[in-house]
Every structure is written in structure tokens, then in C-alpha cells.
UniProtKB/TrEMBL annotation:
This is Hydroxyproline O-arabinosyltransferase-like domain-containing protein. It comes from Lactuca sativa. It is a single-pass membrane protein. Residues 67-360 form the Hydroxyproline O-arabinosyltransferase-like domain. The keyword RNA-binding does not apply.
């Protein structure tokens, strides 16, 4: 009996070694597969897959994956009504399954409080000195983030940089992966086609122009400490671009977006490109599983449901129609045949305006 036990003890040693080796190679293969898939996602800009999402979550389950929603805003009526709608839908989806939303802050870069302070969590920062933005108000955005990151207490490890004309249409998970932010690829941000101008700010020795992602700063989900590195560079590049006549003419209203893309590349930050992060009516017809409606484009249709973009339609919804006052409650729905995304947008605006107290009286 004693001999049998001794033999069993000797036999268990190689067995344990085999088990340990099997566990090592299994873990190595999983990590290698995840790294390979991450590389493909960064390079190809695909949406990833559910198994990859679950694998990463299981590896980081002890970390705080919550992100803080931050949108920069002015105190103009045009900005206020959009912020109110945005915050309404944030509260509606925040705690739904699949959401990683944490806190919310409207970063108000007017320098003083306004009449939304009690309705929406707000942090007041200073605008750029008079005349420095040259009438290009979004130049205040990077400076606002620099101040907010320095002065505010932000509990979450990640931040979603958002804008007032965003509406959460589905619960949004944290799509960032560690040091790699998640961003939306814009078709009109084309670093390679503007290489001559871009090289003024991203010199040859930094690497190929393809290191610059086709993104803006919003929507982007990014770790707080990475954004703390990028934000001052983003601010300085924005100001330099605005001061350069050739660059200002080339980039126009998207100059600050290019500045963020360049600043990220200068810090060797590459974004996971997620086309499902956002949809933009009227060009994107279906909502599906996308997460944010961005209503920056005018939606103009005739009563046959045909798009008349560039020409005021018989039916229209355009945020620029409401520069001084919010849209009235109960906007008429579009005619039959109009894409689902436009119908959904108007219904969501109507629901928010119907349920936000004092909708019509705030500006007065």
C-alpha cells in the first residue's frame, strides 16, 4: 500500500507539468488571438465581434469600464435646447443593459453660469481670450477640455467626448480598449489627401501620414490619462492651424477635428474605428444597432418622401432653423417613405420636448 502511494506521487509530477504547459499555451494562444484581432480592428476599422468584446471584458473585469459623458457647450439658446435633449436621452439609456455610462458633465465654456445649472450637471470653464477664436467658436473646445481635466474630479477611468447634437439611440458600451480610444471615422477627414498641409504639423520624421486617423474628437471614448496627454497638444495645434492661412482655408469648419487627429498621432495614439458608433440622418437610413444619432445635416423632403437636400423641402427638420428658440413641441412627423432614422430622430425630439419642464419658457 505504501509503495502504491509512492508510485502515484511520482506519476503525478509529469501530469502536473503537462497540465501547467497546457494552461500556458492555451492562455498564450488566447492572448495572441486577441492581440491579432486588435491589430486588425485598428488597421481595417471594422466593428469587432462579440467574442472579442467578451474576451476583453473578462480580462479587465476588475477595472472600471464606466465612462464619463462630457460635452462642451456655449450658453447660446441654440446650444441649450440641444443639450437638454441630449441629457434627457442620456438619463433614459444610462442604466439599460449594455450601457457603460457613468456620470455626465456639460463643460460650459462661457466663463459664467447660466439657467441650466440646476437641470444639467455643469462645470464652468473660461473661453479663449477675446478675439483668439476669430469667430470659430469650436476652437474653445480643446481649451475647455484642458481646463476641465485639470480642475474637475472625474471618478471614471474613461471619457466619452460628445456634442450637444448627439442623441443616444441605443445603450452605449465602452468601446475603447485600454490605451486605444474608440472613435467614429468621418468620410470628410482625409489626412492623406491633405498631406502638404498636414506636414506643417506632423513632420516626416514622425512617420507616414496614415498614422493620422480620419476622426474628430467627438464621438470618442478615451481613457482619462490618455486624453490628459493629448488635450494640451490638441489645443496648441488648433491655434496654430487657425493662425496658418493655408490650413484655415483648407480645413474650414472641421479644422479643430483635424487638430485632434494630428495631436493624437503626435502622441502615438491610434483609434479603434467604429462606424456603428454613430449615424447621421438623412444619409444613414437605418438606426439598427448603432448608438448615437448625430443630427448635424438638414433633413429636407417633398411630400412624396423624396430627399431634396440643398433645397428647403415641403417637410424639413434642420437644427439651424432654431437658432434663437427651441423647436416647438409636437413637430409634425415626416411624410411616408422617409428613412427610419429621420422618423426616429423627430420622435425622439418630440418625446424630449414633451417631458422636459419649461421647454418653451427657458430662453424667455
Amino acid at each position: 500500500m505504501f509503495i502504491r502511494k509512492n508510485n502515484m506521487g511520482r506519476a503525478s509530477t509529469p501530469l502536473l507539468i503537462l497540465i501547467a504547459l497546457g494552461f500556458f499555451f492555451g492562455t498564450y494562444n488566447l492572448v495572441t488571438l486577441v492581440i491579432h484581432h486588435t491589430s486588425d480592428s485598428l488597421k481595417l476599422g471594422d466593428n469587432g465581434s462579440e467574442w472579442f468584446h467578451d474576451a476583453i471584458r473578462s480580462m479587465t473585469e476588475k477595472k472600471n469600464l464606466k465612462y464619463h459623458v462630457a460635452l462642451t457647450a456655449t450658453d447660446a439658446p441654440y446650444s441649450k435646447w440641444q443639450c437638454r435633449i441630449m441629457y434627457y436621452w442620456y438619463k433614459k439609456v444610462k442604466d439599460l443593459p449594455g450601457s457603460d455610462m457613468g456620470g455626465f458633465t456639460r463643460v460650459l465654456h462661457s466663463g459664467s453660469s447660466d439657467n441650466l445649472m440646476e437641470e444639467i450637471p455643469t462645470f464652468v470653464v473660461d473661453p479663449l481670450p477675446d478675439g483668439l477664436d476669430r469667430g470659430y467658436v469650436v476652437l474653445n473646445r480643446p481649451w475647455a477640455f484642458v481646463q476641465w481635466l485639470e480642475r474637475a474630479t472625474i471618478e471614471e477611468e474613461y471619457i466619452l467626448m460628445a456634442e450637444p447634437d448627439h442623441i443616444f439611440v441605443n445603450p452605449l458600451p465602452n468601446l475603447a480598449r485600454g490605451e486605444h480610444p474608440a472613435g467614429f471615422p468621418f468620410f470628410y477627414i482625409k489626412p492623406a489627401e491633405n498631406e502638404k498641409v498636414m506636414r506643417k504639423f506632423y513632420p516626416m520624421e514622425k512617420g507616414p501620414i496614415t498614422n493620422i486617423d480620419p476622426i474628430g474628437n467627438s464621438p470618442v471614448i478615451i481613457s482619462k490619462h490618455v486624453l490628459e496627454k493629448i488635450a494640451p497638444t490638441w489645443m496648441n495645434i488648433s491655434l496654430r492651424m487657425k493662425d496658418d492661412l493655408e490650413t484655415d482655408k483648407a480645413f474650414g469648419w472641421v479644422l479643430e477635428m483635424y487638430a485632434y487627429a494630428v495631436a493624437s498621432a503626435l502622441h502615438n495614439v491610434r483609434h479603434i474605428l467604429r462606424k456603428d458608433l454613430m449615424l447621421q440622418p438623412p444619409w444613414d437610413g437605418e438606426v439598427g444597432k448603432k448608438f448615437i444619432i448625430h443630427y448635424t445635416y438638414g433633413c429636407d423632403y417633398n411630400m412624396k418622401g423624396e430627399l431634396t437636400y440643398g433645397k428647403i423641402g415641403e417637410w424639413r427638420f434642420d437644427k439651424r432653423s432654431y437658432l434663437r428658440d427651441p423647436p416647438p413641441r409636437n413637430l409634425p412627423l415626416p411624410p411616408p417613405g422617409v428613412p427610419q432614422s429621420v422618423v426616429r430622430l423627430v420622435k425622439m425630439v418630440n418625446e424630449a420636448s414633451a417631458n422636459i419642464p419649461g421647454w418653451d419658457k427657458l430662453n424667455s
